[in-house]
Amino acid sequence: MSQNIFVINPGSTSTKVAMYSGEEELFSENIVHTSAELAKFGGIPAQLPFRLEAVLGCMERRGVDPKQLDIVMGRGGMFPPVKPGAYLVDDALCELILHGEIEQHASNLGGVLARRIAEAAGVKAFVYDCVSVDELPPICKVTGIPEIQRQSFCHVLNSKAVARRYAESIGKRYEDLRCIVAHLGGGISLSAHMGGRIVDSIADDAGPFAPERGGCVPVLYIIDMCFSGKYSRSDMIHKVRGMGGLRALLGTSDCREIESRIAAGDEKAKLIYDAMIFQIAKGVHMVSTILAGDIDAVILTGGVAFSKYVTDGVSSYISHFGKTVVIPGEFEMQALAEGGRRLLSGEVYHRYGGGDGRLV
Question: In the chain, what are the domains?
Answer without folding.
Answer: 4-133+332-357 (3.30.420.40), 138-328 (3.30.420.40)
